[in-house]
Write the structure tokens for this entry.
Amino acid sequence: PAAADWPSIKPCPPPPPPVLAVPATAVPPTPPPAPPPPAPPAPPVPEL
């Protein structure tokens, strides 16, 4: 009896796209943060 119900079962429709998703062309990609400047070399320590 349960097998007769299978033809009436329809596959779930695909989920709608998320609302927060925006086309890539709408918002320019944010550039990566600039790397920190290299630390200056330590001054030579005079031997005492």
Notes: The chain has a mean pLDDT of 70. The chain is about 0% helix and 0% strand.
